[in-house]
Amino acid sequence: MLWSLAGDVRLLLTLPAALTMQVAHPAVGAGVDDHSVFRTDPWGRGERSLTSLQLWVYGGEGAAAEGRRLRQLHKTIQGTDAHGRKYHALTPAYYAWVHATGFPVFRNAQRYLGRPFTEAQERQLYAEWLQVGRILGIHDRDMPQSVEEFWPYYQKVLDNELEETVVVRELVARDPVLPVPDRGPRWLRVFLRLTWPWLCPRFARFRRFLTIGLMPQEARCAIGLEWTDAEERRLRRFGRVVRAVVPVLPERLRFLPVARRARQAARG
Q: For residue 260, which of 57, 128, 212, 255 is within the disulfide window of CB 3.0 to 4.6 Å?
């Protein structure tokens, strides 16, 4: 299932929700607050994270190397969270939570952006997500090994750990200060520099809308994020458009570059 899901352009719409759930954990939020370049280089950081995720699924032998690189990168990430508690990025419970968020976000977003998963598909997706976790160095003992075991674990983290951290507030801010994107061809960079004062607040509102909307309801409640009935109706209308348009796109537009190359190679 991940062979199709993880490379689909709709993945881009779901990542902010997963990231926000991750940094709602005080230890993870503190690590990002203290060590990440998400404020100074959000576009580069996002591009690197997306490429890494793609390698987990489509990287072949390179997937394991990427997993080792990530663990090495996180070895030096440590400090004290907002409650005065020591944290280390590779503490099994924290590292596992970051990975675990992908499953409920995939599941929830699919209700809007695709066809809801069947029970059998949910089980398969979770099994594949566990396999990806092993690539990242997450031990089986640190992740629930079945869907039935996952939901009590997930609810326990929501009930006892998550909160509206400083980084959460920044990610869902209505008026964030975002640097002009510096990726893409020259003509695009010039266009963005000229139009960014107009585009930035609109992009920020759209990002906030998708971040909160595609997050599972129980996670929104645990973090304390508001979501209205009117916003829910807007998200459902947006989802209907996405479901109609994306499946008929040609492969070069529907799949992200790493996934597209892997799919072409698999066909020989």
A: 255
For residue 201, give Cα distances in angstroms to 198, 207, 218: 7, 10, 28
Q: 198: Cβ–Cβ under 8 A, 6 or more apart, which residues?
A: none
Angle between helices 92-100 and 26-35 (to 10 degrees): 90
Amino acid at 69: R
Please give the chain's pLDDT, 268 residues, in tens: 999 999 999 999 999 999 999 999 999 999 999 998 888 888 888 889 999 999 999 998 899 999 999 999 999 999 999 999 999 999 999 999 999 999 999 999 999 999 999 999 999 999 999 999 999 999 999 999 999 999 999 999 999 999 999 999 999 998 888 899 988 889 999 999 999 999 999 999 999 999 999 999 999 999 999 999 999 999 999 999 999 999 999 999 999 999 999 999 998 7
Q: Please give the Cα distance from 25 to 184 (Å, whole number).
A: 33
169 Cβ neighbours under 8 A, 6+ residues apart: none
Dihedral, CA atoms, 242, 264, 256, 17, nearest 10 degrees?
Answer: 70
Give dist(CA 223, CA 165) in Å, integer. Answer: 9
In angstroms, the CA 9 to CA 249 distance is 10
